[in-house]
Amino acid sequence: MKIHGKHYRTIWTNDDGWSVEIIDQTLLPHKFETVTLRSADAAAHAIRSMQVRGAPLIGATAAYGICLALRNDPSDEALDGTYEMLLQTRPTAINLKWALDDMRDHLRNRPHAERVAAAYERAAKICDDDVEICRRIGENAATIIKEIAAKKTDTSPVNILTHCNAGWLATVDWGTALAPIYMAHDAGIPVHVWVDETRPRNQGASLTAYELGAHGVSHAIIADNVGGHLMQHGQVDMCIVGTDRTTAHGDVANKIGTYLKALAAHDNGVPFYVALPHTTIDWTVGDGVTEIPIEERGPEEVTQMTGRTPDGGVVTVDIAAPGSPAANYAFDVTPARLVTALITERGVTDASKEGLARLYPELAS
Ligand code: MRU
User: Fold this and answer.
1) Can you give the pTM of this predicted structure?
2) Number of the ligand 1 atom closest to the C-alpha atom of 254
3) pLDDT tens column, 266-315
4) Do 185 and 124 lie in a common domain?
5) What contacts 112, CB < 8 A, 6 or more positions away?
6) Does 232 share its domain with 275?
7) Which of 52, 174, 244 is the pocket-test mutation for ligand 1 (most atoms within 8 Å of CB)?
């Protein structure tokens, strides 16, 4: 997608042929700056500190983390050690493990002398595949937006509610949940997006609104508690979110607060869609609520907020009394029964074991 008229992906290799550039998402929307990763430790830091975030982009960054490690030491020990180190960076998004497994399987039986080149080639393929997969998810989900638009009897836009950021910044390009919104908008379908602010890290207010604004898509940031009210008043035609891990049975882990939106959607007859690539499906997990590890982050993300001051500076302030304790669960799980459909690069299915197995017979066990 474009920033100030220039096309960017969220991750790329530099002209030196080995160092890796990322957009520092912790600074958005106040500053657009890139960071150069020169080591696996730097890649791990980028994932942990959320300079990069979003399940597919976390996976892509980890893949390049393996490349950076092997440049220094192409041994099996380095490969396994870096795999383990990167795997610990964030617990919920399964694309991290998927990408690390893919890299290790691809490199394991190669001679050491070939490993670095093979690793960079594979990481680039993971990125290119992610772009194509997201494009296809976008096409498949845009069909649903077009159908809703066609049924409208007035001139109102298709009102879409989304939570967190599942746009191009969460992937290598296009995004998952936002890809169809860009495509529908580009095709001339009037769309309007309700953007959940997504406390505590504000991925909606800081990233989704930034992306949509840059692309000229009509949107409004809403406090996290507003969605239910809008749905009760007929102001949401559909919800669409991304996911960090979807089980073989169709339960969906996503940013904390997603479950409450799905409940409100269910109560109000609003369709609730989840857009995902196959790399987000964890075929080993049955019940998402009890089996998916939920990341718990530092309490300061809840007790503080960061924002821009009138002079353009960026400051972090306390919003709670000194010493107030806080709990910070980063994800929740929406049971399959609340999901209208899963939208993948292979098509749309009900959120069920059978539905996912029909789309991915070679992966479902
Ligand atoms: O903690 P984050 O910002 O990495 O979480 C990302 C999300 O939860 C997104 O909503 C997203 O849907 C998953 S990635 C497309």
Assistant:
1) 0.97
2) 8
3) 999 999 999 999 999 999 998 999 999 999 999 999 999 999 999 999 99
4) no
5) 74, 75
6) yes
7) 244
